[in-house]
Amino acid sequence: MTHIGRLYDLLDDVRLPDDAIPYSQVSPWELRFLHLLGRHHLTGEGRIVELGSGGGGSTYALALGLRESPVFDERTGRLHAYDFFRVGKGTFATEKFFTSGSRPEGDDSFLEDFRSRLEPFLPFLEIHAGDLWQTSDPLDTSPVEFLHVDIAKTARVFRCVSERFLTRLRPGSVVLHQDFAGPRLPWLHHSTGALLPYVEIAGPPIRSTLAFEVVRPIPEDVLKRISEDAYTVDEKLALITAVQDRVDRDHTGGIPFKSVLEFAKAYVAHYAGDHRRAWSIAKPLTSDEYLSRTRADHFAQVRKAYEQDREQNGSGSRLGRLVRRAVGR
Ligand SMILES: C[S@@+](CC[C@H](N)C(=O)[O-])C[C@H]1O[C@@H](n2cnc3c(N)ncnc32)[C@H](O)[C@@H]1O
User: Fold this and answer.
1) Domain that holds residue 169
2) Ligand 1 centre from 307 Cα, in Å?
C-alpha cells in the first residue's frame, strides 16, 4: 500500500465545518481526502501546490488539514493557490465562487471573496492570481511535494501543468487529478499511463479524483514527451488501456472508470480529427448506464462530428476516401 493508501480508512470519520467551507465544485469525499492529506501526510518541506482553487472550497479543506498537522510548520511551510480568481469567457470559473453566489455589477473578480473566506490561513497561503502561464515561474525547479490539479480543462493549460509542475515531482510526491472522471480531458489519462512505471496509484479514485504517489524518479524524456504531447493516437490509446488495467470503480462505487477511460479514448481520436474512429469507440458506450445518464452531451458532440465528417466526405469509410481520391473528388 502507498503511504496515502492508508488514508482511505479514515475517510468516513472526517468532519469538516460545512458552514465555514466556501462553495466547492469538488465532492465532500474529495474535500475529506484533501483534509486528510494535509493533516496526516504533507510536511511543507516541498512545495504544496493547488492548481485551480476556484472559490476556495478545496483550498480550505487542505489548509485546515495542514493547520491540524503535527509536522507542517505554518511559519515556513506554504500552500500555493493558483487560479484566475475571476469569471469570464474561457476561465472555467463559476459565479458561485462569489460569496454572494452571483457576480456583482461591474466586477468579475472573486479574489477578495476568496481571501476573506480563507482568512484564517492567509499567513501560510500564497495566492497566484491570473492565467497559470503568467503566474507560474518557468525557472522554478523547487521540488513539489503535493500537486492538486483542478485546472487542466484544456490541452494548453495541461501543457503548462506538465512543463512547470510535473517536472518538479520527486519520489514521495503526491498528485491528485480532480478531473479524472472527465472523458473530455484525455491528457490526464494518457499522461498518467506514461507515468505508471514511476508512480503507484493510491487506491480507487475518490469520486472524480485519482491520487498517485511518485515512487521512482521520472526520466526527463518521459516528462518531455508528455509536455510536448509527442505520443501518437495509438500510443495514447495504449497508455489509457494501461490505466484501465489498474482502475475500476471509484471508492463510493458510483463511477465506472473503465468505461470513463474508454470514452476518453474516443476523445483522443476526436481531437486528432479522426471522427470515424472516435464514434466507433464511443458508440458501444451509449449502453453504459452511467455514461448515458451523465454524458449525453459528450455522445452528441462525438456523434455530430462524425456525421458532419461523413456528410463532407461521403461514406466516411477508408474505402470511400480512397475511391474519392482515385476519381479526384
Ligand atoms: C473546477 S474549478 C476549481 C474548483 C475548486 N477546486 C473547488 O474546490 O471548487 C477550475 C478552476 O480553474 C481555473 N482555471 C482554469 N484555467 C486556468 C488558467 N489558465 N489559469 C488560472 N486558472 C485557471 C478557473 O478559474 C476555475 O476556478
Assistant:
1) 4-239
2) 33
Determine the Cα–Cα distance for residues 279 and 265; give it in Å rounded to an integer: 10
- Cβ atoms of 209 and 177 closer than 8 Å: yes
Backbone φ and ψ for 217, nearest 5 degrees, come out as -55, 140
Element (H, E) at 126: strand 125-129
Same domain, 145 and 283: no
Closest CA to ligand 1's atom 6? 53
3-state secondary structure (DSSP) of residue 99 = coil
Rg of the chain, C-alpha, whole Å: 21
User: Pairing state of beta strands 199-201 and 210-214?
Assistant: antiparallel
**In this structure, are 226 and 261 located in the same domain?**
no
Q: Count up the domains in the chain and report the number.
A: 2
DSSP-derived letter for residue 86 is B
Maximum Cα–Cα distance across the chain: 75
| pLDDT tens figures, 193-239 | 999 999 999 999 999 999 999 999 999 999 999 999 999 999 999 99
Mutate to test the pocket of ligand 1, among 25, 84, 184 (most ligand atoms within 8 A of CB): 84
| All cell numbers assigned to 264 | 476518453
Tell me the average pLDDT across 5-16: 96
Digit-coded pLDDT (tens) for 162-185: 999 999 999 999 999 999 999 999
Q: Which atom of ligand 1 is nearest to the CA of 156?
A: 19
Q: For 17-42, what is each residue's pLDDT tens digit?
A: 999 999 999 999 999 999 999 999 99
pLDDT tens per residue across span 268-318: 999 999 999 999 999 999 999 999 999 999 999 999 999 999 999 875 556
Residues 215 and 293 in one domain: no
